[in-house]
Amino acid sequence: MTTPTPGPSGPIDDAAHGLLATTRYLPRLRMERSAVLAQHQWMAPGLRGLAKGRRSMASWDEDSVTMAVEAGRQLLQALPGCTPAALTLASTTLPFADRLNAAIVAAAVGLPDAAATRDLASSPRAALGELAAALRRPAPHVQMLLAAERRIARPASAQEMIQGDGAAGALVGHGPVLATHLASATRHADFVDHFREAGHDHDYGWEERWVRDEGYMKLALGTLRQCLAEAGAAAADVAHFVMPAPLAKVNDAVAKKLGIAPAAVVPAGHETAGDLGGAQPLALLDVALRAAAPGALILVAAFGSGCDALLLRRTDRPCPGGEPDAGKPETSYLKYLSFTGQIELEWGMRAEMDNKTALTAAWREHGRMARFEGGRCSACGTVQFPRTGVCVNPACRAQGTQQVLSLADMPACVLSHTSDFLAYTPHPPFQFGHVDFEGGGRVLMEFADTDAGELAVGLPLRMVYRVKEFDRLRGFRRYFWKATPVRGAVGDQ
Amino acid sequence: MASGIRDKVAILGMGCSRFGERWDVDADGLMLEAFNEAAADAGVTASQLQAAWLGVCLEENNVGKTAGPLANALRLPRIAATRVENACATGTEALRGAAYAVAAGAYDIVLAMGVEKLKDTGYGGLPVRTRGVANDLWLPNSTAPGAFAQLASAYAAKHRVNAGDLKRAMAHVSVKSHANAALNPKAHLRNAITEDDVLKAATIAAPLGLYDCCGVSDGAACAILTTPEIARALHPDREVVTIKALELSVSNGEEQSFSGPAGWDGASIQTAREAGARAYASAGITDPRRQIQMAEVHDCFSITEAVLMEDLGFSAEGRVIHDVLDGVFDRGGALPVQPDGGLKCFGHPIGASGLRMVYEIWLQVHGRAGQRQLPRVDLGLTHNLGGHPHQNVCAVAIVGRQGA
Q1: Which domain holds residue A320?
Q2: What CATH number is given to the structural domain containing A165?
Q3: Structural domain total, chain A
């Protein structure tokens, strides 16, 4: 399927349809693979070949929903004023099998109630197929596409080394586009290179050489050829080639066979993050877009139960938004095992609290929880959280004057703090304190991703959406906002 | 026009169990231990009581939800009995109920009992709640040390003091309380400690270490109250001790939600300031540091006691570090605080603590405080705090010689 192609560096046409923004999000923690190897080399010395660099590692309170929320917020910050009318969330590790995960994300990023929301699951190529479909069939409104993955690989497996946690996203619509759609192709095939049964954590995979030879070199190659053919483009003209693959050098071989220049192959980011699964195609597309010159052709593929391929042409618009920073090295493999629920540590009685959620109360306070909604008094302007019947300002006390105000994107700072070693948290110490918001509002809240000794009165903070508590008895989790130190530039994690 | 409570209610007798890890005694036994002492002291029996108040905070499923356990333990003659609970200020709440009933003229002789049996919970510190609903959706599931540790960071920032200096003053607070408790046979923790012990102890919630935190104990304390006239009639040779003030202040959410210059500074207990000011007005006190001879405050943590010295007007704003290190609040200082060892070392069986504080004033006024007896006590103050610095209930009582 072919669409009209604008000139490589023609004037920006705001009526153009295409990619408006892309982003990628990595959790702050980056597990040193050498530390993983150190624990496994007694029985799996062969992992040494993979044990370079770091893999991104979700903190205990991050999952595919919270990482998608961060990616979604980054997109909206990159394109201020944009109000997507649809949100699709793609992941093979959605926390809920029956509770619309995209609706949790949509509420947290602040999309209107009327936004169409959808979960996509079951394949690492789900997000790319969705992106291609959105680009092929221009809709009148902006669509937000998010992909996030937090896979739990079996200890000492190659996947544990290869995979990383993270999210990526894209906004598609009419406007100042970064890239336009040239062609796309898809192919389904029940080619089971790996699988994961519903309700289980671990993948089971078949021999990598077979996956390469029969999967990538045949199925993927065919789909890529078809995509190029539909655009009437030559492989040699592809400036950036993106394709997640578990084996190093697979992309090089596919590129070579297609006739794509070796330099066009976009590195998969193994040493800094790892393979983000369902989020990897969009994450690598984000990398490619930022590197691409105006007019450059970008070929993206995603493999899994078949293949999707997408050919884009870069415009001369600069990519808005920032990129992930280097994160924080993590060397405790036991911490990784604990965060992923693969080792049972002794947490003591304080971990026994029954975190049953009263779903009635959760719905009643939905805006408070999802959007961090407090109130601003229409009589005196005082901001408060939570919203109450009577204004908290002792000089006001007006009733029924609280207008909804979200604190989610308000800058804030520390009023007081502690690092509590008595309270239960999966990542001691439990850091919390009183937080004052710019423009008013004070909340006693948890700090996330905060280092020992980092908290100080007056420290600037921003808000992140995280898992607040797990109810392991019933398989539920509840989310709320936490404060994290503002570090460095935009896009800093 | 309300005329307050000053000198309208007298203490007839008081009792206090030994506090500590009372593995071999249940709540009934603790209440009986405290009551027998108070009854002997007052010269009355259970059959003479006309009404009773029972304060129990956390262990309602163990001690019981109503005042029934008190009625059962003491075999009260089916009189009116009410259970009250106001977090860690529960003990004073029992005293308030009983005192106001006497002041109202409804009864002649009543009992205020506080008890807590914490050492059946399996926790080293206070037990965690078992569940919650609305607030758990957003409030951090914090601990008491974590909540009170907040005071230290905000205090140091507000007054621009060195965190190390504050920590040393906090250490002195605990060293002093241990020294006092060493002289108190009923105290839970009777070992003397050094400043170095405090500074080197494991961190519980920064900057609070183990020795900055009070003991969690089993125990009971009680007061038998009556009118000053009856007290004098029953004990003509004994000085009448009356209640001068009994004030309670409850946070209204401003501390935790109202920011800005007019908001709470995070470095003080607002309710203590309110309740203290009202209590001083009620008792006719204008210069607390000089007019009060002793205080038992809610030293759940060393930092709490430190900021309370300013909140209650014992130290000027920003000056408590100097006063503490100068020994002002030591047993031999100008204004002894926690002469019995305080929550820190006497222990903290929650429902009993407010009454235990009054018990010490009672002993000190009568010269019955043994080795820790102060020269002369005419007026003493108790401060009993429930909740956390940003959201709490705070009771202040002033007790002393009739006419003082």
Answers
A1: 17-339
A2: 3.40.47.10
A3: 2
Low-confidence residues of chain B: pLDDT under 70: 61, 134
Q: Which residues of B touch A361 (CB under 8 A)?
A: 133-134, 137
pLDDT tens-digit map of A262-306? 999 999 989 999 999 999 999 999 999 999 999 999 999 999 999
| Residue A28 maps to a domain | yes
Nearest residue of A to residue B145, measured between CA atoms: A420
- B142: nearest CB among A420, A443, A457: A420
Best CA proximity match to B250, nearest among B123, B122, B59, B395: B395
Distance CA A445, CA A435 (A): 7
Q: Is residue A345 part of a domain?
A: no
Buried b (16+ CB within 10 A) or exposed e, A38-62: ebbeeebeebeebbebbbbbbbbbb
Sequence spans of domains, chain B: 10-121+219-234, 142-214+244-401
Residue A270 lies in a domain: yes
Domains B10-121+219-234 and B142-214+244-401 equal at CATH topology level? yes
Same domain for A414 and A326: no
What is the CATH T-level fold of the domain B10-121+219-234, as seen in this structure? Answer: Peroxisomal Thiolase; Chain A, domain 1 (3.40.47)
Same domain, A334 and A412: no
- Asked if A157 and A256 sit in the same domain, the reply is yes
Residues 109-138 of B with CB under 8 A from A: 122-123, 125, 127-131, 133-134, 136-138
Q: Is the pTM of the predicted complex or chain greater than 0.90?
A: yes
Domain at B142-214+244-401, CATH from 1.10.287.380, 3.40.47.10, 1.10.3720.10, 1.10.8.100? 3.40.47.10
What's the CA dihedral at A243, A244, A248, A252 to 10 degrees? 0
User: B257 vs A386: CB contact, 8 Å cut-off?
Assistant: yes
Mutate to test the interface with A, among B141, B208, B390 (most CBs of A within 10 A): B141
- Give alpha helix (H) positions in B106-242: 144-159, 163-181, 195-200, 228-234
A323 and A448 in a single domain? The answer is no
Which of the residues in chain A have pLDDT under 50?
A: 1-12, 489-493
Confidence at residue B64, expressed as pLDDT on a 0 to 100 scale: 84
Residue B131: closest C-alpha in chain A: A354
* Complex confidence, ipTM: 0.93
Are A426 and A331 in a shared domain? no
pLDDT tens digits, one per residue of B95-138? 999 999 999 999 999 999 999 999 988 888 888 877 777 688 99
Test B141 with A384 for CB contact under 8 angstroms: no
Same domain for A298 and A192?
yes
The whole-angstrom distance between B136's CA and the closest CA on chain A is: 8
Give me the phi and psi of A78, to 5 degrees please.
Answer: -70, -30
A442 close contact with B: CB closer than 8 A: yes
Domain shared by A54 and A162, yes or no: yes
Query: For residue A6, what pLDDT is reported?
Result: 39
